[in-house]
Design a protein that fits this description.
The complex is a heterodimer of chains A (143) and B (285). Chain A has 143 residues and is an alpha/beta fold. Chain A has one domain: Rossmann fold, CATH 3.40.50.12280. Chain A contains four helices and seven strands. Classes of the chains: A alpha/beta (143), B mainly alpha (285). Chains A and B meet through β2 of A and α2 of B.
Chain lengths: 143, 285
């Protein structure tokens, strides 16, 4: 029995989101949805985080930041792309400075559709990510 | 001798269990105060087990060693206390533990950690005069530095040194790093410090820090308990109330600046701690 699924600490990064999805992510932490029920803590520190939540598309400015944050996280880790922009780039996909969805830069484990993504869907995606986290924890070689 | 060994072993085994449960109930009470449901009571244990399974991202050779020393000396201070040894020695061991934590933080290059380490030093500066006056107060009340003899005193020392007790409760918030004195490690995310002192501790080294924090909490609460001598039922009740008060204070206050922390802690130490000792001295004369 692993403990990764019981205590997933999330880190939230706003790529180039309009803040719609960010507010929904933070809404998950508020009394109505209260994801701390599942042991989820919002850390803000990549070294402590297990789940990387990204909102907004990847552009030429934030690509390095996303890579850096991802590399600073210790294994096992999962990435959840939240909102249509983070999944595909949405209507910014064709912009000259936009590279597209988050999966263009780092491997994404769960996608949350919607503009903005609903808190229920975000919780569903994080819970789906926990299964992947648990599997990754079992199958990895400890450094 | 056998009883001493039993107490020490009991402390080593039960302190992290009780400390973890206290941390868990702390999180539930905090959540309820914010109209949330909160995590299960065993959540701190899940966190530590998870951290144990993560990668240990160390930034240099000595990083984890310093955290291990922090744990060892915290455990030592508690073991000295529960073994009934000299209270001064136990307090000194706790101070050494704090120094190792700061050294561990200073061994990294992260700016957040360095600010956290400096603030931890300020917190030590604010809290330690009172922490050192506590054994002196207990000595003036009972005539002994020995934890066993203080714990056996028929008249609770709090009747002689209520000021020292109040001072200790004041610096307790600083020592267990709760708001408004959580300067060195922010308890919640999205703050200017990221996670302050613990930012660079990842995986197992953060787990060591958490376990050491449980031991530390139990030790400090035990010092509070000591003020009630052999009236242990009252001791447990008042200690529980004090910790509940800490949770309320944690939830009611925003973080304050370090100047106010040091000045207020020293003023409380001077008025309640030293003032109490003076009064006691003149009464004894």
């Amino acid at each position: 029995m692993g403990y990764f699924a019981k205590s997933p600490w999330v880190m939230h990064y706003d790529g180039s989101s309009c803040n719609g999805c960010d507010i929904e992510v933070l809404a998950c932490l508020m009394p109505k949805y209260d994801i701390e029920r599942f042991g989820i803590i919002n850390t803000g520190n990549p070294k402590h985080a297990d789940v990387f939540l990204i909102t907004g598309s990847v552009n030429t400015q934030n690509i390095e930041v996303i890579k850096n944050l991802y590399n600073q996280m210790g294994d096992p880790k999962v990435v959840v792309a939240i909102g249509a922009c983070a999944c595909t780039g949405h209507f910014f996909a064709e912009c000259y400075n936009t590279l597209g969805g988050v999966d263009k830069v780092i491997p994404v484990d769960a996608y949350v559709p919607g503009c903005a993504a609903r808190p229920e869907t975000i919780i569903d995606a994080v819970v789906a990510g926990l299964g992947i986290l648990e599997a990754k924890g079992k199958n990895r070689v400890k450094k | 001798m056998i009883t001493i060994i039993c107490w020490v072993i009991g402390f080593l085994i039960f302190a992290p269990i009780v400390g973890g449960l206290i941390a868990g109930s702390d999180r539930i009470i905090t959540a309820r105060l914010q109209r949330r449901v909160g995590p299960p009571i065993l959540q701190p244990f899940y966190d530590v087990f998870k951290l144990w399974g993560k990668d240990n991202l160390v930034v240099n050779r000595f990083h984890v060693d310093y955290v291990a020393c922090f744990l060892i000396f915290t455990v030592l201070s508690g073991a000295l206390f529960f073994g009934g040894a000299n209270l001064l020695l136990a307090i000194f061991a706790l101070i050494v533990a704090g120094v190792f934590l700061v050294l561990g933080a200073y061994s990294t290059n992260s700016p957040y950690v360095l600010i956290g380490a400096e603030r931890e030093l300020l917190q030590m500066m604010a809290a330690e005069p009172m922490l050192l006056l506590t054994p002196v107060g207990l000595w003036m009340a009972t005539g002994s530095f020995n934890v066993y003899e203080i714990a056996c005193s028929a008249t609770p020392p709090i009747f002689y040194v209520p000021g020292v007790f109040i001072g200790l409760v004041y610096v307790l918030t600083i020592k267990i790093r709760k708001s408004p004195f959580d300067l060195s490690t922010s308890h919640h995310a999205h703050q200017e410090l990221v996670k302050g002192l613990t930012t660079e501790f990842a995986g197992p080294s953060l787990a060591l820090f958490e376990i050491a924090h449980w031991y530390e909490t139990i030790f400090l609460l035990a010092v509070v308990f000591l003020f009630f001598g052999n009236h242990w039922i009252w001791g447990i009740i008042i200690t529980a109330i004090i910790y509940l008060l800490e949770i309320f204070i944690d939830n009611l206050n925003a973080r304050i600046k370090w100047e106010l922390m040091i000045v207020s802690a020293w003023v409380v130490t001077l008025i309640c701690g030293v003032g109490n000792l003076f009064v006691l001295y003149f009464i004894h004369m």
